[in-house]
């Protein structure tokens, strides 16, 4: 009512925030004190919570529910990753630190796995470095290792002999070693002891050093001969190769003159190529905020982060890797 030019206006008070047990339960939290959830609290007030078993606070410094003017602000409780012994047994893997007794890991924790004895990495396995993301992770996989079969033909082609004169054919288990020597008048160039890696063994090189001379050494694409290429080379001579910038040498970096012929020259493998548009297609950017590297060498990698609205899948790490035959991208999903 207006009285002689004056009016007392009514007072509007902000209403309190309303809570139920279900509000906290759906967010995987309970009261820190163990008491019942307050049904109402005033604007500006707060109360402490703790995460349910199997969950952890996203930020250890944020453990209060706050009643704000326009909203209720809750902390975040994120699910922990629990190691599955059954899954590790099924995939033939174990943690890198095999003596660890920990089985529960927090969000964003990184775990390193290795194959169990007698197994080797499955070619189609996910990465062996795994990040826990909101209670989920994908286990890598190892398969039964394959032995190397050494035949008489293998030795004859390379002018090789076995140091211990074992009977052929010979089976060498994965991870096992075998020592070689060369036939008479041939010289061993590479180390004599070779290792079997999942069914594959690189044989050493035997060179005939007292035979015919060789003509000019062969060139290689995207690479160069380190020294001046001569018109003729004596038996046993060699040339050394190097690759152009960002290319990767594949094979022995030398070629030898062996009885008038050059041994196999190495190859220079192309680097991986990237653009801003290519990363945008995968919903990611460079983690450091710098520009996307246009080229990186085989074996190199760089860290990424997912674009806004996307998250890294649990089985992915946050590295783009340049491999010999492919580029491995993490997965950012919306």
Output the keywords:
Sushi domain-containing protein; Complement Module, domain 1; disulfide bond; Sushi_SCR_CCP_dom; 4 domains; sushi; single chain; 334 residues; complement component C3b binding
How would you characterize this protein structure?
The protein has 334 residues and is mainly β. It has 4 helices and 38 strands. The strands form 15 sheets. Strands 2-4-6-7 form a 4-stranded antiparallel beta sheet. The chain has a 4-stranded antiparallel beta sheet with strand order 24-26-28-29, with no helix packed on it. A hairpin with a 2-residue loop joins strand 28 and strand 29. GO terms for molecular function: complement component C3b binding.
Q: What is the helix content?
A: under 10%
Number of distinct beta strands:
38
Mean pLDDT score: 88
For the sheet with most strands, the description reads:
4 strands, antiparallel
Which regions have little confidence, pLDDT < 50, spanning 5+ residues?
A: none
Give Rg in angstroms.
33 Å
Widest sheet: strand ordering? 2-4-6-7
CATH H-tier superfamily of the largest domain: Complement Module, domain 1
What is the correct CATH architecture of the largest domain? Ribbon
Shape: elongated
Assign the structural class, choosing from mainly alpha, mainly beta, alpha/beta, alpha+beta, or little secondary structure.
Answer: mainly beta
CATH topology of the largest domain: Complement Module, domain 1
Keywords: Disulfide bond, Signal, Sushi
Domain Sushi: 212-270
GO molecular function: complement component C3b binding
InterPro entries: ComplSys_Reg/VirEntry_Med, Sushi/SCR/CCP_sf, Sushi_SCR_CCP_dom
